[in-house]
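pasting for the record
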Amino acid sequence: MLSHVDVIIPALNEAESLPHVLRALPWARIRSVIVVDNGSTDGTAEVARAGGAIVLHQPERGYGAACLMGIHHALHRTDAGPADVLAFVDGDFSDYPEQLEQLLAPIASGEVDFVLGSRVLGRRTGRCLMPAQRFGNALATWLIRLLYGVRFTDLGPFRVIRREAYERLKMVDRNYGWTVEMQVKAARLGIRTLELPVDYRERIGGESKVSGTLRGTIGAGYKILRTIFVYHFATRRSAGRITLNPKSA
């Protein structure tokens, strides 16, 4: 039984899409939704409050910075205690938030500690997962398998992790490398991990703030690859080899 599930939504100018995300979430399974406003100018914070979310303000731009602020709130609440499970979903309605139920099930059963929603394995509609994203995903996940021995198909943002597993990761990235940092650290530590297919559609509000620009695409690609190699060589220096959970391979 998962009594304290907190959903974290990093958001930058998502006033148009956020109401759809909030309505689609399975609220019966959730304790709180935490929207981290990453410097919006379109009324995102007001829309989030109207939809029942807790709103935090993170003026430092960066996906990781927003996630870390939301996590800190979820784990250090004085009104209701720490979250048992942290869930992450984007605020642009490209994910199907109702599928959170599917991602939570293997954690609730005790089967695994970290569930990643794979857009590659799911159904896709519209102009989503552009060629640069598909290539970057394929390259990054191939490198993770090569260097860490764990198979992923995606670096997607829709994911769920148990608090105890998250705390072992000691996450630090504050921008483009946040999702891949979580995956390579989970691989290094042998955290029980499962990938499940999730559906994906064209985001509301036009092009992605990252993959929709040349600067964002190059910056994200560089940071993702750098993160994969940095933690690999750090592991080799400190331990000589990686011990993996067989269920994750």
